Amino acid sequence: MIDEKILLTPGHTGCAGCGQALAARLVIDAAGKNTIVVNNTGCLEVFTTGYPYTSWRVPFIHSLFENAGAVASGVESALNYLGIKDNVNVIAQAGDGGFADIGLQAFSGLWERGHDILTICYDNEAYMNTGIQRSGTTPTGTNTTTTPVGKDSIGNLRWKKNLVDIALAHKCVYVATASIHLPIDLQNKVKKALKMKGPKFIYILAICPLGWGSEPAKTIKVAEVAVKTGFWPLVEYENGVLTKVRKIKKDELLPIEEYFKLQKRFAHLLKEENKHVVEMWKEKVKENIEKYNLLED
Amino acid sequence: MKEFLEGAVAIARTVATCKPAVISAYPITPQTHIVEELASLIANGKLKAEFINVESEHSAASCVLGASATGVRVYSSTSSQGLLLMAEVLFNAAGLRLPVVMCCVNRAVSAPINIWNDQQDIVTVRDAGLILLFAETIQEACDLHIQAFKIAEDPNIMLPCLVNIDGFILSHGYEPVEIPSQDLVDKFLPSYNPPYKLDVNNPLTFGPLVGPEWYLETRYAIQETLNNDVKKKIVEVAEEFTKLFGRKSYGLFEEYKTEDAETIFVTMGSLAGVIKEVVDELRERGEKVGLLRIITYRPFPEEVAKVLLKAKRILVLEKCISLGAKGPLCEDVISVLYTQVSSNGSKLPTVQNFICGLGGRDVSKEELLEAYKDTTILKFIGLKKENLGSFI
After folding, report:
1. Does B271 share its domain with B342?
2. B58–A75 CB contact, under 8 Å
3. ipTM
């Protein structure tokens, strides 16, 4: 028998070491059984709902790649009509493709209209479900199947689209980033978000061993290094005000190369001729450190 | 009591009597008056419903899809480009077996951009697993809306239903209309009680990944539902409607003076009005002619073959074309005729196809009388030869 408290049950077909599977389980277990999940097309929907099985022990709907924001708005409105919204959480979630690219319009609509919904993006920084193609959140220098590294290519050219700022610009009542290496922090953020009425956004880095070329056994390690290099700052905004930042001790700040070393998608960045890309990453990390005042003595 | 109302207003007021819980729409001409009136009814306390103003038709259809999955009655409406943007969601709603009810105010498709009426928009989604009904008059548009909820929401059906009305002609035209009383609609239309929904007390997964082992059966199930349950239900509901509301509703199709007709016009939508006049005029001249008006376009009623096979000549008039082939309605007519004939060996009538009214071009009685004399197999009616130089 499966523990009844686990709402995303084992037995799904996620890859070994999948960061999204872990993140999604932490989210739904924190949200509890009185939750309706609306999911865009992507890995999570594919590996948890292969008919005739499902891993979800809460009501779950997957409609299309880009419409979770709108479907969830309809779900929430129906719950309002029925007068039961206060007893039921609605979560609308997607990967980076479904959230930041093709689904952004529908999420923008949801946020702007102020629906009482928790939106979550599991960012694995490329279209993993279709075979590691570049997305709007793929960072510079990433080797993907549509931005392959070659004689004339360093991989993806552009830096990540900033979803946190986009959510803040929509006046989401709660905006936070989270990491799977700190599960209690992640779950506390979910619980806090769900206590607030209005549109909420939590942004989670979803380590993808398959797409990133990282060892499945090192998923938690990769997540930890992402945070400790300053690449994935952990922050919380309430009603537009930055209320919490997870500090990094100055002597514990890791050089970004430590992050690259764990992932084959960045292997080429460690070569001398790609030093300029590494410098660019260092600039981006510095921006994070300064913007959020990440370091402490 | 009849009121002299604009079509869109009449439809909105009728929809309000059906008590939809969630309405979502995005502005597009000529659909907008319907949802404006619904918004106004809500704003003035005459309808209790959630109205979601969205950022696109894709989201409008997705909102009502989500609400429908949560177990409440939903409504939306759109036209033209909006319908095309919704196309993906409509296929999805059908596959998810959600009884979304909508009005498609039929309008031409861009480019060139043209806001006027034809029926090119709706034929793009004819294969989606939707129930597609066509109204001839504003009154019929209202009556079909009430029936649409009852048909779509039947637990044995659970498919989206779109009522089609010709843009401007029916949406902006005025007609004396009977808006049925709330009592009567309540008697006719039960509250929506879905066999499955998103419910925290009974967690179900909607929209799973379905592989080759199961997918084929999902399509077969929709096909069976449309061809059996839906057709039966449409006939039943039309009969029940006729009895209860005291106004004739025809169900699958309407026959007009087809009894001894040697030539039968076939069409759908408001064009039937002028064709009826043409039929009357030709009858006065002693011509044996009639009209068969398709009301239910999907599922396509193969029952029309029985009527049409008695004629020598069929003239299919339609406001849409499958460019590179012929009119989609004509193809359906030929298909059911041929199927019928190849099984019983009777003689096929000649089938002629007239494409007309595209992009809002008027279709006159004179042009239809000309078409009656014409022997061409496929022809655009009302072409202005002097305009062609600009495009060919």
Report:
1. yes
2. no
3. 0.96
